[in-house]
Amino acid sequence: xxxxxxxxxxxxxxxxxxxxxxxxxxxxxxxxxxxxxxxxxxxxxxxxxxxxxxxxxxxxxxxxxxxxxxxxxxxxxxxxxxxxxxxxxxxxxxxxxxxxxxxxxxxxxxxxxxxxxxxxxxxxxxxxxxxxxxxxxxxxxxxxxxxxxx
Length: 150
Prior knowledge:
- The structure is a single chain.
- The chain is mainly beta.
- The protein contains 1 helix and 7 strands; from the N terminus they run αβββββββ.
- Strands 1, 2, 3, 4, 5, 6 and 7 form a 7-stranded antiparallel β-sheet that branches.
- β5 (89-111) and β6 form a beta hairpin.
- The radius of gyration is 19 Å and the shape is elongated.
């Protein structure tokens, strides 16, 4: 079941569905993606994100488009732990943290077909941890634990 779920998420990792055009050269999009997160000295963990983004075209260039976007995403991140008695935890465990993220990005797109475009965007984001789970630890967010915002 996990392989099927990961396959579906991977297939949708860069899908964006346009919902509405509010202003000229802008859109409100539903988006989903696949992410791979790591924590220093720990092995990586696959996760996902889903949310909405507001895109605004900034300038057309060389048959492509330069745009800016802001959004709100729900993201699952974490790491796999294989430790030998760190704190109260022994053996293998998974650290999972769920975030509410607010990205502020600039990007570009280039059409490669009538209905297909290549795109890339980058920029900072603000995130707040909404929940987390680690076997053997009741509250992973505390003064001595993890912080909720990054």
